[in-house]
Amino acid sequence: MNNRHIRPESYPLVIQVIQNHLMIYSPDFNYRVVETWRPEDIGQTEMLVLKVRKELSNRIHLSLTRGSPPPACSPHSSLRLVEDQDWISTRDVARLLQVSDETVRRLADSDGIPCRLTPGGHRRFSRKAVSEHLSRSGELPRSLEGEA
């Protein structure tokens, strides 16, 4: 494909809702936009996608102007929605376990509680993993419903 015909729509975007924030992330450009999520605003996601696509277009144009190729497109589909309803923050886990945030980080680093990292480097824990940790630690599992 000729570099002059690369379109921003060719690059995948990851769309996530994390604790009342909408994030749209371009892994190829390592670019993201985060806004407070308003579920009642149907057009918010579309507007944010358009904003990110415009920025990608500007970056492609800048690369070509400088004579360097833009990044290669990832083999992912164009848009991906990552559901985050079952993931909670370090602070929420600390509150549930009644320990400090630092203790939760150490538990995650030692594989005591599996977690994943957001593109911004924050840990997110599945409610199921936290509940399993509570069961293994000998404490009665607390309900994790509505704790986020």
Short characterization:
By secondary structure, the chain is α+β, with helices and mostly antiparallel strands. The chain folds into two domains: 9-82; 87-136, Multidrug-efflux Transporter Regulator, Chain: A, Domain 2.
Explain what you see.
With 148 residues, the chain is of the alpha+beta class. It folds into 2 domains: 9-82; 87-136, Orthogonal Bundle (Multidrug-efflux Transporter Regulator, Chain: A, Domain 2). The chain has 4 helices and 7 strands. The chain has helices spanning 43-66, 90-97, 101-109, 127-136; strands spanning 13-18, 21-26, 31-36, 79-82, 87-89, 115-117, 123-126. A 4-stranded mixed beta sheet has the order 3-2-1-4, covered by helices on one side. The longest helix has 24 residues, at 43-66. The protein is elongated. The termini are far apart. The model is unreliable at 140-148 (pLDDT under 50).
Keywords:
Multidrug-efflux Transporter Regulator, Chain: A, Domain 2, 4 helices, 2 domains, four-stranded mixed β-sheet, elongated, three-stranded antiparallel β-sheet, alpha+beta, 148 residues
Radius of gyration using CA atoms only: 19 Å
Instruction: Write down the secondary-structure element order.
Output: EEEHEEHHEEH
Number of helical regions: 4
Unreliable parts: 140-148
Gross morphology: elongated
Strand content: 15-25%
The number of domains: 2
